[in-house]
Amino acid sequence: MERASSVDSILRELRIGAWSANEPPRGPVGPTPSPPPRGASAGEALLTDSSAFTRYHLLMARARDISAPRVSPVGEVEVEVDSKSALTRRRILDAAAHVLSVKGYGGLRLTDVAAEADLQAPAIYYYFPSREDLIEEVMWAGIADMNVHVAEILDALPAKASALDRLLAAVEAHLRHALEISDYTTASIRNAGQVPQAIRQRQILEEERYGEIWRKLVNDLARSGTLRADLDLYIAQMLVLGALNWTVEWWDSRRGSVDAVVANAQTLVRHGLTEVRHTRRK
To answer: Which class is 2-273 in CATH?
Structure first.
């Protein structure tokens, strides 16, 4: 019980920290931030805080395997201009992620993205050469951000956390990111089978990196002797990920909370993947 409490406590703290890099929580855990001004995304409102802004872009730079964004100590004007440009670009991406998550690849129009971002449509071309480039960035970011989010939560778990603890923590992190935190992830999952292969290339590479996290989690469960002996490791991994991803298609807040989805998913994983110990009837 002490181990479970420790894991739950760390997950709760990390959820609150993770929201600072994207949208505020929709669920009941933790204080709810004030809503952003009308016409601005929640992500942009939070990123006006310099620490949140820097944290997000450092994480995403690391995920891209590129250098961190330049911060100039010379003068506040230069930094302010750079930040405004970055925030506008992020506002466009936030808007595109939302539109893509709702209307899909075929239904995304730049005029809708511009309206959501409170910009004139031609302004989008200053930041993205084409509609496809914008969609490609959203599709990649949805998986890259999930990758960083889940890896951070796993890294912060106590060293004594069991293989099953870590797997269940990843289940929760994945679901909360897809259902509560990120339009990007929802858009990326929902449209993976719709966008042209050329747009999917960078996303596929990121999916492979993310899959490695889950491969290790399932392999560690097997090495611990907890995984059912009759399960194929790869098939078990893909079935779990497939079920988690499919929640973005059917889940509706009117039919239950994210907490309930997480609890049910963890129960299914716990009892579906681990050895069942039969107790003798009295």
So the answer is: mainly alpha
* Amino acid at position 102, single letter: V
Cα–Cα nearest to 239, from 177, 180, 171: 171
Q: In DSSP terms, which residues pair with 274 in a beta bridge?
A: 227
Grouping H, G, I as helix, E, B as strand and the rest as coil, residue 227 is strand
Q: Of 132, 149, 145, whose CA–CA distance to 185 is shortest?
A: 145
The tens place of each residue's pLDDT in the chain, 282 residues long, gives: 444 444 444 444 444 333 333 333 333 223 333 333 333 333 333 333 334 334 434 444 444 343 333 233 333 333 344 588 888 899 999 999 999 999 999 999 999 999 999 999 999 999 999 999 999 999 999 899 999 999 999 999 999 999 999 999 999 999 998 888 888 888 888 888 888 988 888 899 999 999 999 999 999 999 999 999 999 999 999 999 999 999 988 888 887 899 999 999 999 999 999 975 544 444
Task: Give the list of residues 6+ apart from residue 240 with CB closer than 8 angstroms, or none.
Answer: 171, 214, 218, 269, 273
Domain ranges of the chain: 2-273
Q: Which positions ≥6 away from 214 have C-beta within 8 Å? A: 170, 237, 240, 241
Sorted by sequence, the CB contacts under 8 Å of residue 113 that are 6+ apart come out as 92, 95, 96, 99, 121, 124, 134
- Are 137 and 195 in contact by the 8 Å Cβ rule? The answer is no
Structure tokens at 131: 């509609």
From 245, 244, 222, select the one nearest 232 (Cα to Cα).
Answer: 222
Angle, CA 250 vertex, CA 244 and CA 251 arms, to 5°: 80
